[in-house]
Amino acid sequence: MGWLRDESTLWFLLTGAAIVAIDQFLKNLVIANFQPHVSYPVLGNLLGIYLTYNSSAAFSIGFGITWIFTVVSSIATLVLLWFGSRVKNTLWSVLAGALLGGVVGNLVDRITRAPGFPGGQVVDFIQIPFNFPIFNIADSAICVVVGIVLILVARGHKIGG
User: Is 124 one of the annotated active-site residues of the chain?
Assistant: First the structure.
């Protein structure tokens, strides 16, 4: 197992796999149990489930050009696989793995969901107040990782450790 060089690579792969598994499990659970375009309160007005299918990028940017996001996500997956196996510490491995999981979670939708490859729609279902766009676990992973990386880099940390 030459590519599984150390504990950091293991953390990278396990984190990525966990994010994809949780994301896909919850998407399938929501699809099986909720009607599209109906708001279901979970924690009053603070959190709800609102099933929708998204053919654009995060926050509905680029509506109708899903195939481009499929290509970009595929390239990002390959880059993250290359980068993640070279990270030097556990923190950066977990961050890279979470980013990989987020990218792959949405890529799975683009490949497998209607209307089909390469234009499959991403399942979004998490609703929060203030007219914030509906999102999913994969989107959350991507945004949280980007936020943490920005903070770490601003504090002088080198990307990758």
Answer: yes
From 6, 23, 109, 139, the catalytic residue: 139
DSSP label at 135? B
Q: What pLDDT shows up at residue 1?
A: 46
- Considering all CA atoms of the chain, what is the largest pairwise distance in Å, rounded to the nearest integer? 50
CA distances from 59 to 6, 17, 101, 132 (A): 36, 24, 18, 8
From 6, 23, 109, 124, active-site residue: 124
The whole model's pTM is what?
0.92
Is 139 designated active site?
yes
Q: What is the residue extent of each domain of the chain?
A: 7-30+37-154
Question: Could you tell me the two tokens for 3?
Answer: 């590519």
